[in-house]
Structure formats: C-alpha cells, structure tokens
Amino acid sequence: MIGMGGSYVYSYQTGNEINVSEEGTIKQAANPASPEEQNVIAVSGKYSYKADDGTLIELVYTADDEKGFVPVGAHLPTPPPIPEAIQKALEYIAKQPSTPQPSG
C-alpha cells in the first residue's frame, strides 16, 4: 500500500512459508553538495524462512541515508573479540595527537 507523501507498506507470505514485510517513509536529509535538503527513503523490514534443517531464520533490517543497510539476525556471523592487548593499543593510538605528514 502506498500512502500520502510516498510512504509504503507491504507484506506477503509465499507457499513455502517465506514471510516478508517492509515499510518505508520519506524523510528530509542534508545534501552535502547543496544547501538544500533532499528526500530520502528510510526503510525497515524483516523476512523469515525455515532452513533445510528446520531452523527458523529471521532477519530484521533498517536502511537509510545515515547508516546504510543494517541487518540483525541470530544467524549472521559475528567477528571474534579483539584481544585485550590489541584493544589497549588501539585506545592508546586513538588518544595520541595526529601529526601531519609532509607531502611531496
């Protein structure tokens, strides 16, 4: 369904139990190339299905001009934790003043 101002909502279920829903709204966003704002679509939605082993796979997402596509789901891989020594080194480096590099 398309609403006033360009917003929309849809959902459906397929015969093999894939469920999808999404909604989008128009919002104003800053345009770095111009002093004028521009219209962008902010989207949120989800889909789910059963994997071959019967596990329910569900993905929830948002997408907009600020953060891009942001998926969330228990099935998505996650990075390993950063080792403590490396984390401390990164924090130390981040606190140091930057030094300009000579060009040429």
UniProtKB/TrEMBL annotation:
State if Transport is listed as a keyword.
Answer: no
Q: Name one GO cellular component term.
A: chitin-based extracellular matrix
Which InterPro entries is this protein grouped with?
CHIT_BIND_RR_consensus, Cuticle_Struct_Prot, Insect_cuticle
Q: What's a Pfam family in this record?
A: Chitin_bind_4
Task: Provide the alphabetized UniProt keywords.
Answer: Cuticle
Q: Is Ion transport among this UniProt entry's keywords?
A: no
Q: Which GO terms describe its molecular function?
A: structural constituent of chitin-based larval cuticle
Q: Where is the signal peptide?
A: none
Its protein name is Endocuticle structural glycoprotein SgAbd-2
The organism is Homalodisca liturata
